[in-house]
Batch of 4 targets.
Target 1
Amino acid sequence: MAKFLYVYHGSGKMPTEEAERKAAMDAWTGWYDKLGSAVVDGGNPVGMSKTVMPGGTVENNGGSNPTAGYTIIEAKDIDDAVAKARDCPILMDPAFSVEIAPIIEMM
């Protein structure tokens, strides 16, 4: 099985209400349970990033496509990884997307 990186993109904010946070965590837990042993690293959300551009200029606030978090999974191929991502809870928000890339083992 190959490993794939899911990079979550979007500019949404973490829920502030306890009930919303619990509902979001329950959705993620349910999705991870569905993925089962395919989850290699459940990942985490990430804070606001800075992007270093050619020439050294820096874009604050994540640039044009801010990263919101990541997960690493195992799948047969990229099409299988895409199929697994279709149920990702982050996609309930139209401001988010999931980028999928194969991890190339170098060492």
Target 2
Amino acid sequence: MRGAFALATVMMVGAACAQATQTPATPEQGAVVSATPVAQGPDIVHLQGVRDVRFGTKRADLEPRLDGSRSGCSTQVTGMPQGNLVFAADDRLVMMWFDAPLRTPEGVHTGSSLQEARTAYPDAEVLAAPADSHRFDGLLVTRGDRGYLFLHDGATVQKAVAGYGEYLTRLFNTGFGAC
């Protein structure tokens, strides 16, 4: 009898923990409901953005925080050199290339093994680079209108990108945002 009570208690606590880790999904935020606990912190690239830099924000709103010492197409936020911002023609932030220590909530970053990325995102779409090209194959993870694109060499994630799924797909297919 005591064993049955203990088992029931463990099951109830487990269910409560799973519910506590779920994030409410709202279309405005592009949030994803997940029963999997995910990491939080300043180096976590979520589907909404990283730190207080959010996808969809206008360049003018970010301008005071952008690193003006960099020239060319590498737009970065001051103090975050591991993230390169990509803006669309309408000046909205649509993607961000990111390097370690920046990582997804599930821990995937540049340098992660392909197996780690596949384990973290088992539903990722496998993308094959054109034959005889010098491009990387990819894994595309989409959740609502946002996602991650992991470009890999068959063993290791070489490039990691977060942002709107439409732009991630365009990047893989045509090189948009590659500078």
Target 3
Amino acid sequence: MSKNMDHFDQRILRALQNDASLSQRELADRVGLSQNACWRRVQALRERKVITGQTVRLDPERLGLGLTVFVMVRTRHHSREWLQKFRMIVLGIPNVIDFYRIAGDYDYMLKIMSEDMNAFDAIYQRLIEQIELDSITSYITMEAIANNRDLPVC
């Protein structure tokens, strides 16, 4: 637990991760605080950048994004210029949901969501045509066992 966070802050964070649409009254009731005390704590968590935004989770299937692919990229290039270009290209592809620089056998990992294999192939072709890569490997998911889980707030 962070030294600036007590059990009320943790309860607030868990409740908001589960449902960010809670009214101030509902949140206060769930965590056992008055509305004013709860509001002050939420504001303090925002000021400390513990809470960085508020979003809605969407169902990818209902949006026609039924295919999830993890793409592993290896490169020979590690210059600042190459990295800036690569980041710009990858971030310019809306179907790239997550993008990481990683340690190990590969240099980067992308999570791509698309309509189907043909749509993924178009994204793949767009990526490899725009920048030189050493190797690229794709892992197609069959089932999301755990996805978008809440962060552990202890």
Target 4
Amino acid sequence: MNRREAIKKTGLALGFAATSPLLMHLIQSCDSKKPLGWKPQFFNEKQALLVAALANQILPKTDTPGALDVGVDVFVDKMVGEVYSKNEQKQFLKGLEELEKNSESKNGKLFTDLESQQQYDFLYGLESEIQHLSFDSTPQEKPFFLMLKELVLLGYFTSEEIMTKHLDYQPVPAQLVGCEPMKSNQKLRVGNYF
């Protein structure tokens, strides 16, 4: 092998080695689905991704953590899987399925495939539809979206991060001072302090 051929082959090998990671990154980035980062116990992966997308739209990250930052999607998976009755679980899964069908018929795409603004607009429409309904507090009578919102809010406001860093959590019972005026910079006090 002469010197020219050796340089040519070395250049090709180096070029391939340098571009391989870039090509792999481009191929992987074509996949629009983000990995969960946790293994669902009750939901399948598609349902868990949908719950995560819904929770992220209900409580997105702002100057405070969003629902996904404090693990609300994991909380919903545990609550539905371990606390809900079989009928409530069926109702929840049916609600997820109907939401996807509704999104596909209105937008031509599954909810998880929509852009963020489209997801927001879709959920805003769902919220508008259920605002005028009156129902009992039993889960069987609640619209699916309301069941989901309640779980998301419960998981968010009872998470350790939110309770301890963003609310004035009082974990130990203390003296009850009724009708105490709030200070201008005081956080909302929550916990079992009564």
